[in-house]
Amino acid sequence: MSCALGSRIFLSAFSIALMFSLAGCGGSTAAPTQQTATLASSVDQVAQTELQRQGIPGMTVAVAKNGTILYAQGYGVSDLTTQQATPKEAIFEIGSVSKQFTAALIMQLQEEGKLSVDDSIATSLPEYSFPPAITLRMMLNHTSGLANFTDFPQLGDWVRNGVSEATVLTAVSQAPLLFQPGTQYSYSNSNFFALGTIIERLTGDSYAANLEQHILQPLGLTNTYYVLPPPSQSATGYTNNGAGPVPAVIWDRSAAFAAGALSSNIYDLVAWDNALIHGKVVSPASFKAMSSPNGFQIPAGGSYGFGLALWTFDNRPLIWHDGQIGGFTTETAVFLDSGFSIVVLTNDQDANPDAVVLDIMNTVCNSAQLSTNC
Q: How far apart, in whole angstroms, are the C-alpha atoms of residue 90 and residue 369?
């Protein structure tokens, strides 16, 4: 069993895009219907190739622009036992893609005057022995130095049997810091776990209730869940045991919490991306803070904001994040200048969705026929 949660950011193949030739975007003379068909066949080819190459049971892919779906499709099977073909609407666990939802809730609370991202964690969670030098900003952009709870030996028990927030936070607060707060970058799920508890403290409601009231209902994201979604609408998650894919251990939601418990589908994530970049979730000033670099380079290249990884493609800025949790890997990427977005969801915790995202970027954005989409 793998107990890695939510980001493959550090092992990410995102950085391999530097090896691709990045041609400028040219105009297209193709008729819209021809262009649509070409886009569909191009995305299908990328997805089918990676599905076969990586041995992924099932996957859904969407490409969109400013919230409008340009093409969406399901591939492979959502359940190996029934051989159910993957519907486009299938719901997958999204792992650390959840972190941008948590970051947005924090920014909403700052807009309401209930906190400042420069507040100390010690003020927010006084009963734990967190160093006062750690701020919410450092937690949002992974410069806090807090040890990553998903590396702790007790994680397997927490995943199977559930765990209280106090148990996790006590363990994190007692673990040695990785470095002095604010001096380095190191991705740690502990940051967002603690931020979820802070949201609950300040609002008096559960993290799930905050998510529902302030994000899911206002945006109409009816296929996004904190609890496990209905099985009839969900893909089954798999891992590879060396002899082929087998059903993965599904995490208790309490173990993933605000760091990676959400499930969603490609349609809701396209809508979420569009709402986030266009000021429908947080204010433009808050989004600017979320998408500002933390001053350190992440291993995949680029930097990290608040729950968002930052990168450039052909000198064009984009936000992205990947996720990994028991049985699933996912990735979203959005160009900030055009609103072109890609969402890839897989039901294989060992899959690499980066390869799909990057190949689609290169196929679409560097094509004279398709680049107007990008």
A: 30
